[in-house]
Specification:
This protein is α+β, with helices and mostly antiparallel strands. The chain is built from 3 helices and 4 strands. It starts with a helix and ends in a 9-residue tail after the last helix. This is Endonuclease/exonuclease/phosphatase domain-containing protein.
């Protein structure tokens, strides 16, 4: 992080574990953003490991102040596909192909927290 951005920090960055970290920055006088960096387990990882990861991510999202802008970024080892009708408001009509198991997990958490994937743009 550049030194001139440090003054924008609202809190000390938090490393949750080796897969998740958060950073809260001030956007304007009355607006904050929470940035969540994530590295999801691979498609071949044990189901227990995936469940733990997504439960931890869900907890972070649930604890984020509702008025914050949320930026969730990272490597989710996922394909979200293009089933716009099944995931309206979460993926856009630009998505292609089929989703995989990790994509379904990602879409489920995005839908639960009113987040969109980049395919909506």
């Amino acid at each position: 992080m550049k030194n001139d951005l440090v003054k924008l920090l609202s809190e000390v960055p938090t490393g949750i574990n080796e897969r998740l970290s958060t950073l809260r920055i001030k956007l304007t006088k009355n607006q904050q953003a929470t940035i969540i960096s994530a590295y999801a387990p691979t498609l071949d990882a044990d189901e227990d490991i995936k469940e733990i990861f997504y439960c931890q991510l869900d907890a972070i999202l649930s604890e984020t102040p509702k008025e914050d802008k949320i930026i969730l970024l990272g490597d989710f080892n996922a394909r979200v596909g293009g089933d716009f009708d099944l995931w309206p408001g979460t993926i856009g009509k630009e998505g292609v192909g089929n989703s995989n198991q990790n994509g379904i997990l990602l879409l489920t958490i995005c839908a639960a927290h009113n987040l969109i994937t980049k395919t909506l743009f």
